[in-house]
Amino acid sequence: MKKIYAFIAAVFMAISASAQSEEGSITLQPNVGITYSTATGYAGDDVDPAIGLTAGVEGMYMVSDNFGLALGLNYTGYNVSGSYGFKNDVIASNYYFNIPFTANYYVAEGLALKTGIALNILSTAKVDGEDEFKMEILGYKKEIVYKDAYKSTFFSFPIGASYEINNLVFDARYNFGIGRIYTEESGSFNALTFTVGYKF
Predict the structure, then answer these.
(1) Which of 39, 69, 107, 183 is deepest in the core (most CB within 10 A)?
(2) What is the pLDDT of residues 7-47, one digit of tens each?
(3) Among candidate residues 142, 144, 146, the one with its CA nearest the CA of residue 129
């Protein structure tokens, strides 16, 4: 029985072996995942959270054995659902190029805490898959270009953690919107993001 326990422990330790890099190394990590987004301010009371997709790549330089600096480029959906014009419960798809710069501190083998800042550059904004939606303003029906309601950029503040096992990296982070997303009104996007990546 002791041999069985020893074997199980050895297997567990092997599986738990991390791909954490050494000081001075540079790694690349493609990743894919989902986002769960909410809106604040102007639209916050009128829309509900929705799921989006995210995919990209991150490069990291290890300053020391337990501290690294990472720069990423992701295509990320900050999606919400709500009523737009004459349609109810439709998805507003807001996709941005998300460029995070984060500091990563390894508190244990393979387990990193991270925080930083991210620039988000607007790529597409659609309602129910369309660029425009119809609504009535002062008794007149009008075509509204959805993307026109948004600024081209906003900043966010990511904070989270990741765990590495056999070069797989499981990452969870919350992105606090710290910049205005609308051209005329206040408000921002917050998003909880889950990704799985592979570190080279």
Answers:
(1) 39
(2) 444 434 444 444 457 888 999 999 999 999 999 887 667 78
(3) 146
CB atoms within 10 A of CB 78: 31
Neighbours of 109 (CB within 10 A): 13
Give first-to-last CA distance, the chain, whole Å: 39
Instruction: Name residue, tokens 């799985």.
Output: 196
Phi, psi (rounded to 5 degrees) for 42: -50, -50
Question: What pLDDT, on the 0 to 100 scale, is given for residue 139?
Answer: 62
In this predicted structure, what is the pLDDT of residue 4? 43
Q: What gap in Å lies between CA 175 and CA 150, rounded to an integer?
A: 18
